[in-house]
Specification:
There is one protein chain. The chain is of the alpha+beta class and about 110 residues long. It has two domains: about 35 residues, no CATH class; about 70 residues, no CATH class. Helices cover about 20% and strands about 15% of the residues. It is built from three helices and five strands; from the N terminus they run H-E-E-E-E-H-E-H. The strands form two sheets. Strands 1-2-3 form a three-stranded antiparallel β-sheet, with no helix packed on it. The chain has a two-stranded parallel ribbon with strand order 4-5. The termini are far apart.
Length: about 110
């Protein structure tokens, strides 16, 4: 890990966790970062934003019905309130390599 980032994570027992299939880091300021799988067990969870890596490989139905709806919560501001028109709210970042003709991302561009 990056030493500066390592110093910002709360490594107290039971707070930040990492295992073979799951990662959940809690920062000293209370922010969290974790992994959400594109499967039925993730349905109903809530996040203020998300980063989809290799999204061309994610099942289109799972992405549209499970992952994207999780970002329907506005970010909590430092004073404990939420502002519905804040630019960063519900942000989604997509990172992928070039797809192929049979991927759903290719079909949307035509």
């Amino acid at each position: 890990m990056i030493p500066a980032l390592n110093n910002e994570i709360n490594w107290a027992r039971g707070v930040s966790k990492k295992s073979k299939d799951d990662v959940s880091y809690v920062f000293k300021n209370g922010s969290k970062i974790n992994i959400l799988a594109a499967k039925e067990s993730s349905r109903g969870q809530r996040r203020t934003g998300g980063l989809m890596e290799e999204c061309v490989l994610i099942d289109q139905t799972a992405l549209n019905e499970i992952i994207i709806p999780t970002t329907n919560v506005n970010r909590l501001l430092p004073d404990g309130t939420r502002h519905g028109e804040e630019v960063i709210n519900k942000s989604q970042i997509y990172i992928t390599t070039a797809g192929w003709k049979n991927s759903f991302a290719y079909d949307k561009l035509i």
